[in-house]
Design brief:
Length: 255
C-alpha cells in the first residue's frame, strides 16, 4: 500500500511505462476539447470574460471560492458514503443542467449554483481517484483530490508547468487543508469567475451556463485521470514522481 493505493507484482516494464505516459499525455492534450474552443470564440479572452462581472463580485470571488471548496470537501466525501458513484457522463449531464439553471436567473442564481457545482466536480474527481485504485477514505487521497483544481482552467493555455502540483505533499491536518485551499482558491476563482461571466450574458445565460459547466466538468475529469494516472504509474513503475513528471513533460511536447 502506497499513497492510498495497493499495487501488487513486479514494477512495470519500460515499454508499458512509455505506453501509459503516452496515453496520459494524449488525454492531457485533448482536455480542452472542442467545447473550450467554442467558448473561447464566444467569450473572447479570459480577462475579457472577467471584466463583465461587477467589481464587488470580482473582489469577493476568491473568498467565495474558498468557502465553496470547504463545503465541497465535506459534502462530496459524505455523499460517497451514502450514494453510489455515478458514471462520468451522468456527472456531465447533471452539471450541465445546473449550469443552465444557474444561468437562467442571471448572476444571483449563478452565484447560488457555484458551491453545488464545485461539490459535484469534487465528487467526480473522487470517483476517478477510486477508479485508479486509490482509497478516498484516506486523508492523503481526499486532500489530493482537491489539488486537481490547482491546474490552469480550461480557457488558459498551458505547457504542462502546472503539473508541479502533482508532487505536492502536506502534513495532513486541518491547518494544512486550510493552507491548500488558500493556495488553490485564487486560481480556481479565476476559472469560476469566467464561468459566472458567461452565465450573465443576456438571453444566452442559460445556454452559456450549460456549455461552461459541461466544458469545465469534462476538463477536470480529464485532469483527474491524468493526476491519479500519474500517481498510480509512479507506484506501479517504482519511479519517483519527480522523474516521472519530467518524462511526462517531454511527452507533452510531442503531443
Amino acid at each position: 500500500m502506497s499513497n492510498g493505493v495497493e499495487i501488487l507484482g513486479a514494477p512495470l516494464p519500460e515499454a508499458e511505462v512509455e505506453a501509459e505516459l503516452g496515453a496520459l499525455a494524449r488525454r492531457y492534450g485533448r482536455a480542452g476539447g472542442r467545447v473550450i474552443a467554442l467558448l473561447n470564440q464566444l467569450g473572447g479572452q479570459a480577462d475579457g470574460l472577467l471584466a463583465r462581472l461587477p467589481e464587488p463580485v470580482r473582489r469577493g470571488l476568491e473568498a467565495q471560492t474558498a468557502r465553496a471548496l470547504e463545503v465541497a470537501l465535506a459534502a462530496a466525501s459524505r455523499s460517497h458514503e451514502s450514494v453510489a458513484a455515478e458514471p462520468a457522463w451522468m456527472t456531465r449531464t447533471l452539471t450541465t443542467a445546473m449550469g443552465a439553471a444557474g444561468g437562467f436567473g442571471g448572476l444571483p442564481s449563478a452565484l447560488a449554483e457555484l458551491p453545488v457545482t464545485t461539490t459535484v466536480l469534487l465528487r467526480a474527481i473522487q470517483t476517478i481517484a477510486k477508479d485508479h485504485g486509490f482509497d478516498t477514505r484516506e486523508a492523503a487521497v481526499k486532500y489530493d483530490c482537491l489539488t486537481v483544481f490547482a491546474v490552469a482552467g480550461p480557457l488558459e493555455k498551458d505547457d504542462g508547468a502546472d503539473l508541479a502540483f502533482l508532487s505536492t505533499r502536506l502534513l495532513l491536518n486541518g491547518a494544512a487543508v486550510s493552507g491548500l485551499i488558500a493556495r488553490i482558491a485564487p486560481r480556481l476563482s479565476v476559472v469560476l469567475g469566467q464561468k459566472l461571466a458567461a452565465q450573465t450574458v443576456p438571453v444566452l445565460g442559460a445556454a452559456a451556463g450549460a456549455a461552461t459547466n459541461y466544458a469545465y466538468t469534462s476538463y477536470y475529469q480529464e485532469m483527474a485521470h491524468v493526476h491519479f494516472g500519474l500517481r498510480r504509474l509512479a507506484i506501479k513503475a517504482d519511479l519517483s514522481e519527480e522523474d516521472l513528471l519530467a518524462r511526462f513533460r517531454k511527452r507533452l511536447k510531442r503531443v
